[in-house]
């Protein structure tokens, strides 16, 4: 019994060491990614500058009585947050995988990071077995995570599509109302 406890204790210590190493690697990758500016953040900065410049110009036009925008402004950010990717993903893992999906690339598996998806496909076509393909349990985890990302991306696309359809329907209804009002006004003016 004592030997079994010692074995379990050693296994637990090994797992903890592996987890610490992985956390260190993630911190290093995050530090590298912080140095590379995200294109979405650039777009957000541009949007903020445009909004701030338009708000300053609209302040001057408000004094003239011309109001182009009435009421609260809708949020322009249609991206996915970490909550949309689901649970059981490491911080930043969902966003990184979603970036590959957005580019239409294959999500790299463990041990393949640093290689392009073309290089990986080339190695696999030659006959190399990549490390992620060997272990059933790891493969199952990878597939589950990939499916989480794909489903989150599909939900986002579906939400955007339904929003566009709703806007089209609203514009069509508004156009019909405008036609009715214009026809009634023209009838009154004729009389």
From TrEMBL:
InterPro entries, alphabetized: NKAP (IPR040466), NKAP_C (IPR009269)
**Any one GO cellular component localisation term in the record:** nucleus
Q: Where is the composition biased (Basic residues)?
A: 1-31
Compositionally biased tracts (Basic and acidic residues): 32-47
GO BP, sorted A to Z: regulation of gene expression
> What GO annotations for molecular function exist for this entry?
chromatin binding
Domain NF-kappa-B-activating protein C-terminal: where?
83-182
Region feature Disordered, mapped onto this chain: 1-78
- State the family named in the UniProt similarity comment for this chain: Belongs to the NKAP family.
UniProt name for this protein: Putative pre-mrna-splicing factor cwc25
């Amino acid at each position: 019994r004592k030997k079994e406890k010692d074995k379990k204790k050693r296994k637990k210590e090994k797992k903890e060491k592996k987890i610490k190493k992985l956390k260190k690697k993630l911190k290093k990758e995050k530090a590298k990614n912080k140095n590379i500016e995200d294109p979405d953040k650039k777009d957000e900065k541009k949007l903020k500058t445009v909004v701030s410049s338009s708000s300053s110009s609209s302040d001057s036009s408000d004094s003239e009585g011309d109001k182009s925008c009435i009421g609260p402004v809708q949020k322009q950010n249609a991206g996915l947050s970490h909550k949309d990717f689901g649970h059981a993903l490491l911080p930043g893992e969902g966003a990184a995988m979603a970036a590959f999906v957005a580019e239409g690339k294959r999500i790299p598996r463990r041990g393949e990071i640093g290689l392009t998806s073309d290089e990986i496909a080339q190695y696999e076509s030659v006959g190399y077995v990549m490390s992620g393909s060997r272990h059933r349990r790891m493969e199952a985890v990878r597939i589950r995570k990939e499916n989480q990302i794909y489903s989150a991306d599909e939900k986002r696309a579906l939400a955007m599509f339904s929003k566009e359809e709703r806007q089209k329907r609203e514009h069509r209804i508004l156009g019909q109302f405008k036609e009715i009002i214009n026809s009634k006004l023209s009838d009154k003016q004729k009389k």
